[in-house]
């Protein structure tokens, strides 16, 4: 989905922008570092997840022990995070590119190799 479709789908979830952050492909999409993304990936703290469970039905994801699927709408990582690692891009909370890069390097997945290069190049240009 492109940026417009992504935002429309994200907005349909009616999430509190102060209680989640976008991770993965959505971060790169909102920064303009990629034209599309396949899905919505967000991170929420455990207390907000408990509240969301009263509104939505979640299914445990087989990928990671902290990951849940929200119907066909999003993948939700239930993890604590530091607000200092959140930036607002286009009015939406996104995990910092620095933290995204760190995660990608640590996990060293084949599918992230090009993304690592794109983020490194972007951060290098931003620092100059």
Number of domains: 1
Task: Pick out the low-confidence regions.
Answer: none
Number of helices: 5
How does the overall form come out from the CA principal axes? globular
- H/E element order: HEHEHEEEEEHH
Q: What's the CATH topology name?
A: Beta Polymerase, domain 2
Q: CATH class, anyone?
A: Alpha Beta
Number of strands: 7
What number is the mean pLDDT?
95
The CATH architecture assignment turns out to be: 2-Layer Sandwich
Look at the helices and sheets and give the structural class: alpha+beta
Rg result: 14 Å
- Spatially, the strands of the biggest sheet line up as 1-2-5-4-3
The percent range for strand residues is 15-25%
What percent of residues adopt helix (DSSP H or I)?
25-40%
Descriptive notes:
With 128 residues, the chain is α+β, with helices and mostly antiparallel strands. It has a single domain (3-95), classed as Beta Polymerase, domain 2. It contains 5 helices and 7 strands, in the order αβαβαβββββαα. The protein has helices at 3-11, 25-31, 46-52, 97-107, 113-127, and strands at 20-22, 41-44, 58-60, 67-70, 74-78, 86-89, 92-95. A 5-stranded mixed sheet has the order 1-2-5-4-3. Strands 6-7 form a two-stranded antiparallel ribbon. The protein is globular and about 45 Å long.
């Amino acid at each position: 989905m492109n940026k417009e479709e992504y935002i429309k789908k994200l907005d349909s979830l009616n999430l509190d922008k102060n209680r989640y952050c976008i991770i993965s492909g959505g971060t790169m999409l909102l920064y303009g570092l990629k034209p599309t993304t396949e899905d919505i990936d967000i991170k929420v703290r455990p207390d907000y997840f408990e509240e969301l469970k009263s509104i939505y039905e979640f299914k445990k994801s087989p990928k990671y022990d902290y990951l849940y699927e929200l119907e066909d709408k999003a993948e939700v990582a239930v993890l604590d995070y530091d607000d200092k690692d959140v930036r607002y891009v286009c009015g939406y909370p996104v995990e910092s590119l620095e933290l995204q890069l760190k995660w990608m390097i640590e996990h060293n997945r084949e599918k992230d190799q090009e993304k690592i290069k794109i983020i490194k190049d972007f951060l290098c240009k931003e620092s100059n």
